[in-house]
Amino acid sequence: MRLPFFLTVEWWKQSIARARKKPSLSFTSLHKNLDLQLVSRVRSTGLPSWMQFRHLFQFLSIQEKKTLHIFSILISLSALILIGNFAFLHHTIKPARGGEYTEGVIGSPSLINPLFSYLNPVDADLTKLMYAGLFRFNEHLNIQGDLAEKYEINKDNKTYHIFLKKDLKWSDGEPLTADDINFTIERIQDSDTRSPLFSSFQNVNFEKINDNEFTITLKEPYAPFINFLTVGILPEHVWQEISPANTRLSSTNLKPIGNGPYTLNTLTKDETGIIRSYTLKPNDFYAGEPAFIKKLSFKFFPDFTSV
Fold it and tell me: Beta-carbon neighbour count of residue 117 at 10 Å?
């Protein structure tokens, strides 16, 4: 059944009026609805979800966005500084082992022997490379063990109880023991040796406990005495057949058996018998840090004009 025309027109007007009265979704309403959706999706742990993080910037003001950017940059820089500082403090740069080094030297070696090396700068340099003492000076000029593993000083400050490192050897493979320490001190104390260290070791008493342990006792306390124990140690099995009076004359002074980081490889002489070059190689039996340079060469010249 068809409605009368006037009823149809009336229904149409009412429909249009209802449509005009129906509220529309504004931009603010959309954001309000989105807020409700995001809040409703908060996890049980209380942490925002990825969906919420994605829409974070839509709800921040311009000033808040700038502040967030500044804090992000500061946090990143702080993290980089902390990582760099940690790496710097825990990273050690060490040179690689190998290579060769050649040095020209004015003068010539004559007594590569710790008992006499103080008399000649050339001898002193070579002796430090080829001989080790009970102690040595580190890069800060502090005393530390070389052949000695540790030491104790009695309350009277006169007795030094010294322990050698285990399994010490000479460059020829022979064992290094407390007997070598005793022999070196006795050879210095012998006036026939004529060592410049003679006065430093007078009134010094050595007592062996075992091959790796001994005591050195002074008559009176002398604090700097431990500095004297940096002198290189001589091998008893090499020098025991050579009398103290002939110590300076022995050819062993030029072909030493030592215990330092380097040992003799080759030497050359001219027609007059003067040494012109010396070549050293690492000592495989050295008790300390192994030598870094594989080959050390020294060329000797009588004066600067000959270089």
Answer: 25
- Are the C-beta atoms of 168 and 147 separated by less than 8 Å? yes
Give just the sign of the alpha carbon dihedral 25, 29, 33, 38: positive
Could you tell me the strand order of the sheet in which 100-106 lies? Answer: 100-106, 295-301, 275-282, 262-269
Rounded Cα distance between 250 and 243, Å, is 10
Read off φ and ψ for residue 21, nearest 5 degrees.
-75, -20
**pTM over cut 0.85:** no
Q: pLDDT per residue over 159-218, tens digit each?
A: 999 999 999 999 999 999 999 999 999 999 999 999 999 999 998 999 999 999 999 999
Amino acid at 82: L
Query: Between β-strands 100-106 and 295-301, what pairing exists: parallel, antiparallel or unpaired?
Result: parallel
Beta strands in 100-178 (DSSP E): 100-106, 135-137, 143-145, 148-153, 159-164
CB 290 within 8 A of CB 261: yes
Coil, helix or strand for 107? coil
